Amino acid sequence: MAQDTRQIAREGRVVVLVSCAMCLASSFLLFLSFPPAGLWPLAWVALVPLFFVLEGEASVRRAFLFSFLTGFLFFLLSLQWIHYVTVPGWILLSAYLGVYFGCFGLLHSWAHRMGGVLRLVILACGWVVLEGVRGTFLTGFNWGSLGHSQAPVPFFIGIASWAGVAGVSFVLVLFNLVLVSVLPGKNGISLKKVGGLFLALVLVWGGAGSGLSLSNLKSPRLRVAMVQANIPLSMSWSPSLAPMIVRRHLSFSREALLEQPDLIIWPESSFPNFLWDFPELFDQVKAFARESKVPLLIGAVTKEGGRYFNSALLISPDGNVADTYDKRHLVLFGEYIPLRETFPFLSRIVPIDDFTPGTSSTVLTLPDGTRVGVLICFEDTVPGLARRAVRDGAQVLINITNDAWFRDSGQPRMHLYNALFRAVENGRPLVRVTNTGESCAISDRGRLLGCIEDGAGRRVGVSGVRVVDVVLPREQETIYTKCGELFAILCFLIILGTVISIYVKRGAAPWRKRSEGS
Which structural domain, as residue segments, surrounds residue 296? Predict the structure, then answer.
């Protein structure tokens, strides 16, 4: 008897170790699907090991823990660039994001007894809803959504024009679930139902991927110059180096004039230190715009009434500041400390002054009448901000950022992947100008029109200028721009309707029996 007990315990430990190994496999495959490796096809099978574990797991607690472990390790690997700023923050954030994977494990346990296609759809919907919550709760963190892995393939992300990133994530999760359901030895669903399901998906996805662009050959164009000066962080805030930094940006801007741009764009915080500390340098910038007769969009820290703003300044060809956009979505613990007065010790841990969120429209009007929607730093990872800018009339989206904090890691490419989705979702070209890379112009269909890179094709840690023509689309709006996260909401309603239906049926059964007995 004792020997049998030990044998069972030994077998249980083996099962747990094998399950952990499979969770590690899913974590690593997911990591490889995203930058820096960027092996996007792996996302189509990356969740299979995890789902295989969950299919055979009867314990709800272990389903949560195995799923949490997968998510924690995935985010720990894919967000390793955060350790350049804070190691504890990197670990804690990865653990927090892993909880969403754990919640999916709970959902999987709950849906385990359901059968057929409905169960697969419910699970895919659940994944979408959890990604949606993660992207909004506590100011939101959209990095690493499964759909982002497909950003390099414009055809695959065409569905985002009506369903957003959620639509791409849904199809990827569903495909992984189907693979597991048809594995030998599993209680799978019929191949006929699987075939019908994916035929419908291919038709919908193919229609989205091959749809018409909102621009055409006769549409007007905006000739944009992107300036990437590649200023190291160690130099950015040195007062003695401020003149050199401005000269460097002006030198690239003069080089761009040879190609007659309609707009020259500098990255976030391209004007060194604080704007009011170097009025003579700001005068040089305004003089350049006046002499070249080309509007200039630059990033700078501005101040008004004791409040600090992370701003984008539009300098007109007459040398005056024509308009300003102040960043609205601030970075938690990077640009402000929440509850500073309630918990003063936080100011000692993170010794920064708070920025003030802007309240003005994101849309600026160029001298020729073109309306541009400006997104600063991580604002291009917030779908609602880009959508709001387009709804306010933006013909082009412009993201200025400074990713120098994260060096030559996977972060700049992951940031670019977010921007690609904002362009496709709203059917608007997007011009992304950064300090250290990756600076690229993106079409309204998610294709790269041109990037700043060196002779070896490197885009990060290089300096230069690139002039690109972007086609201004007609006034139509995509379904996503009109309806927002409607697809994610529908996913939530499907889950809610299923839950209500199940519990209504369970509650009705005893009533029917009593009625029959009477």
Answer: 221-474
- Does pTM top 0.85 for this prediction? yes
Q: Are residues 489 and 409 in the same domain?
A: no
Mean pLDDT across 199-205: 59
Percent of the chain with pLDDT over 70: 83
Q: 249 and 202 share a domain?
A: no
User: Is 268 designated active site?
Assistant: yes
- Residue 464 belongs to a domain with what CATH number? 3.60.110.10
Residues 78 and 140 in one domain: yes
Out of 23, 103, 125, 377, pick the active-site residue.
Answer: 377
pLDDT in tens, 428-458: 999 999 999 899 999 999 999 999 999 888 9
Active site (annotated) includes residue 20: no
Catalytic status, residue 327: yes
Q: Cα separation of 32 and 46, whole Å?
A: 9
Do 375 and 499 fall into the same domain? Answer: no
Distances (CA, A) of 403 to 172, 435, 461: 29, 7, 10
- Could you tell me if residue 158 is left (phi over 0), alpha (psi between -120 and 50 degrees) or otherwise beta? alpha
As for how many domains the chain has, the answer is 2
Task: Catalytic residue, from 57, 103, 131, 268: name it.
Answer: 268
Q: Are residues 191 and 329 in the same domain?
A: no
Side-chain half-sphere exposure of 177, counting CA atoms within 13 A: 27
Q: Which residue has better confidence, 496 or 505? A: 496
Strand order, beta sheet including 440-442: 363-365, 371-376, 396-401, 430-434, 440-442, 448-451
Active-site residue, selected from the candidate residues 23, 327, 379, 485: 327
